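Sequence and fold
=================
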Amino acid sequence: MLRILSNPVLPVAIAFVFRVGLLHTWAFSVDEAYELYAVSLPFTAMLRFLAETDAHPPLFYTLLWLWTRSGIPLTEFYVRLPFALLGALTVALLYVLAASFLGKRTALLAAYLLALSPLHVRWSHEARMFSLATLVATLVAFSLLKALATGHRPYWFAYALSLAAAFYTLYTLPLLAITYVLTALLSQRQTSARLRILLFTLLAFLVFLPWASFLAVQAHDEHLSLSGPDLPGALWTIRLLVLGPLPTGAIYAKLLVYACVLFALAAGARRVAASYAGRFLLVGAVFPILAASLIVVRAEPLLRPVRLLLPVLPNAATILAAGLNSFPLSLRLPAVSMLLGTNLWSLSYSLREWPYVSDFERLTRFLLAHSRPNDYYIAYPRHVAYALHFYARRYGVDVSGNVKAYQGKSDLNLIEARVKAAEQVWVIHDNASRRTPRVYLLLSKRFCMRRDEFFGNAVLLRFSEPKCLRPRQRSCAAC
């Protein structure tokens, strides 16, 4: 049994089962609908659309654009499959990285912790860029450490390409990249080694340079500022990264787990700090979280969306594994069992919650059950209209002639003309989009009744019972 558990293939197989074997086929979320609409455009149009409407670089969208051009029907499983595979591949790469520099025992436990990480499993189950970002960040650390240890040119080029890929994947990855570069520069005493680090880092920036003009367009509407360090928020972020979301209750059990994690992280930090590669990973785990605690984007702390800091999770898992391995044997086995059990508990809780994030399929079924032949549909933003078409086609219903993707007040005259002949109008939008009071006002003048339905982050508004057009006609109680 011990030989089976100590085989590095087992945590990779577990990661594959939890990411691919349990890959859910629930309806696309609002964000996934946005991404599918973006990759449905021609490539150059997609890049312009991303520059105008998105806050992420294009590598993930480029890979998804290529994946969806295979001719295979776009089911939920098929669209999410490559990113689940990337999540499992990250576990294998973490084992290779930790085994090369910190020993096989620490590497094996780190692989188990990442394989059962609730947040890593959760974001490997969505067609989002976060599993790709975690893999790329791990590849940057591995290639740079190998290049510094061996001096072989292929590792240096791998470092430059993986660093450029990091810039093209997620805008928070430069926090991790700067940490690695500064740590490497400060640790090298030879001028030639420092020049080589700077040269290949500059090469990565040159590869990223073509996207600079698009980045300027994206940054135009962003409001970035600095605040005081949010240390409680940083500790809460580390708690979420290591343990994931936990259900309410069981306070004493949670306190015991928190104490175990705290002691293991402290012992792990002390242990890995004794080696160069360990210090490299330790600084890479701590500095990005502290830097994110100082940054505010759109009046929201950068720490709040924990998924943006998912790339530091392999580093945190390695430090935690090193700390657990430093425990006496009588405490090590109970501590490891408790943490892995807590991860499974958190993962089961998350699996129950995922279907409620957004469910366009349930929304579409509700529409088809309550709509009438001449109903009119107003959807915004454009990706919501795309999702409505997608699931309507799945059920064999053609609503293409009655759906309007609202883009601004220039569409109001067309909408006003169409709703005059409609007995019922539906407005579909996502919760994060700006409100459209002009549309609401126009429809409120035309209809007596409004009813709201919520499907996760997707919102459905139903306007019915047209008001009387003649002053003396009384067709409803509100007229």
